[in-house]
Design brief:
Length: about 260
Amino acid sequence: MLAAQSHAATDPRAPAIEVRNLHKSYGDLEVLKGLSVTARHGEVIAIIGGSGSGKSTFLRCINLLEKPNSGQIIIGGEEIKLKTTQHGLEPSDRRQVERIRTNLAMVFQSFNLWQHMDILHNVIEVPVHVLGQSRDQAIATAEDMLRRVGLYEKRHSFPSFLSGGQQQRAAIARALAVEPSAMLFDEPTSALDPELVGEVLKVIKDIAGEGRTMMLVTHEMAFARDVADRVIFLHQGRIEEEGPSEQIFNAPKSERLQQFLRSIG
């Protein structure tokens, strides 16, 4: 996860997320080649592209799960303090990053639930032990979030007893429980069987309808067209084309984007 209104002082006039000239390499392989992206408050941005285009790496760099080699990351007007090391940029103020991460929640492909805890305790773990909420307050919030994703009746079940779709909905409830100002979704349906995809997409669509800032890496093109305000097409670590979803899907300008859309049918 990363920063927000309820846990940090942010400038409401500033973009929710701003990334400037981000570079990331693994040895000699340059994965991100100077990406600059701005997400306004309440905007939903879908990031699409072929395998290896840098989509997931980009999200993980925003959240500092990957260390970029250079660039700036600004959340709600607050620039993350980074220092240069031999391994790339690393946070110079760990407390700042921890505070920011409570407000920029991330939902992963593989759910990342704690298997030794039931769903309710998965959801309250961060609010209680990181944000310092009372247990009663955290449980009340968690139960509300689980109702929203249709899992209240499963709150005492362990992850191994849930379907993949239910586990991903639980992961979304956990992300929502910290009341983030923005959310990052890294291909949230890619690990699911086809019949379970729809239930997760419905939950994400409902969240998008609340006016929450979202960046979403997805291979579900119909969903991106329906939900996103803006779509970014990455190709080989660069932004090949971006624009309103209607333009990207109905009148793509880039030949590479046209080929990509044809290739996925």
